[in-house]
Specification:
single chain, globular, 8 strands, 1 helix, 8-stranded antiparallel β-sheet, about 140 residues, mainly beta
Length: about 140
């Protein structure tokens, strides 16, 4: 459901992760970010004219999580197990649904996604366990 704002806020976004072995239910997502990856091409012509291009090279991003289940740990463990068993690990797909201010919904699909868990969590007393799941996808397309 869209917020009653004139601009987007975090709760206007819903995310679905389809890993290589099925849906990964992320219990407590506290943040999501994505970034376009490009390769810069610069040409400095002899006549002094500068030309430029940014060639698309995929998308990367991350989920910030408060650990609410073993889903992310189990997902990464399954990827590692497949790799060490000599199997190829298929890629996954991410879906981002954005409730727009005008009431419409924008859907973005991140294709051929691969994942890593650079922060599996720090376990301390009564503190929550924060995790960070990062991804790289070859393309993002509007559906």
């Amino acid at each position: 459901m869209a917020s009653n704002n004139l601009f987007s806020i975090g709760r206007d976004c819903q995310l679905v992760v389809m890993g290589p072995f099925g849906r990964v239910d992320l219990v407590h997502v506290t943040g999501f970010e994505s970034h376009q990856v490009t390769a810069a091409v610069r040409v400095d012509r002899i006549d002094g004219v500068l030309l430029a291009a940014e060639l698309p090279k995929g998308w990367d991003g991350a989920f910030d999580l408060e650990r609410g289940s073993s889903a992310v740990d189990d997902f990464i463990a399954a990827v590692e197990a497949a790799f060490f068993a000599g199997n190829s690990v298929p890629t996954g797909t991410l879906y981002q649904y954005v409730a727009e201010v005008d009431g419409s919904t924008s859907t973005y699909q991140y294709n051929n996604a691969v994942f890593k868990l650079p922060q599996a969590g720090a376990w301390r007393g009564d503190a929550s366990v924060k995790q960070r799941l990062e991804f790289y996808a070859s393309t993002r397309q509007r559906m």
